[in-house]
Amino acid sequence: MLVLAIETSTPQTSVALGTEQGVLGATRLAWARGHAEVVTPSIQHLLVQSEVELRQVSGVAVGLGPGLFTGLRVGIATARALAQVLRAPMVGMASLDVLAYAARYSRSRICAVTDGRRGEVFSAFYRPVPGGVTRETEFTSDPAEHLVAELEASAEETLLVGDGALLYRRTLEEAGTPLEFGSAAIAFPDAVSLLELALPRFLREEYTRPAAIVPHYVRKSDAEIDWARTARSA
Q1: Which of 69, 99, 157, 180 is the most buried (most CB within 10 A)?
Q2: Which of 70, 94, 74 shows the shortest CA–CA distance to 82?
Q3: Domains delineated in the chain
């Protein structure tokens, strides 16, 4: 089964193409102009370089966040449109799950942390298990200081991965607990990891219903926050 994976929950746009036998190709790019101008050309480039025609794609996987609102809307809208044109099934995966999966060989507990802007981070804790990771907490969107309190409360050795962990490293180190930080190479949810996670679901025909292909909005959008502040000050 040939699956196209699209991940746009962070400033990095990532697409991958592959089957249960391996990854055919992948590309990732962070560009200031945004996902809308990057994701479709990235898919087209990947198909050309992989010598694959779009009609050969038989499944579409997409990252659902939590993450940046505009990026998520672009990625999910693109995935839906492609799936509709191809009449192909879809699988949606949480982007923090995808990020944690890249660190699945850790012996420590894993905390996936992405930058949520406005001084906040999206995060969740995971435990490595054979073949992957299992999520132990719900997704949260809080100031980095709140995550420090959680780390202090557990006092457990933890691997923090993601651009949010790198951005707020000095703050998180104040927890005073045994911490390790993942490298910049795995700082963003990647379409290759998304592809690896989604393929078994496609093979088991555990598709995600189209109505369930919606972003994991853990908080209000920036526009909603700004509107609420304006309304309170009026």
Answers
A1: 99
A2: 74
A3: 3-94+189-222 (3.30.420.40), 103-186 (3.30.420.40)
